[in-house]
Amino acid sequence: MGVYTASATAPVNIATLKYWGKRDKKLNLPTNSSISVTLSQADLRTHTSVAASSDFHEDKLWLNDKLESIKSERTIACLADLRKLRKEMEDQKSDLPPLSTYPLHIVSENNFPTAAGLASSAAGFAALVVAISRLYQLPQDMSEISKIARKGSGSACRSLFGGYVAWIMGDLENGEDSKAVEIASAEHWPEMKAAILVISDDKKDTPSTTGMQSTVASSDLFQWRVKEVVPRRFEEMKSSILEKDFAKFGELTMKDSNSFHAVCLDSYPPIFYLNDTSKKIIKLIHNLNETENAIIAAYTFDAGPNAVIYYEEKNEKKVLGSLYEHLSSVSGWKDSLVNELNLTSDGS
Ligand code: PMV
Question: 155 in ligand 1 pocket by Cβ < 6 Å?
Answer without folding.
Answer: yes
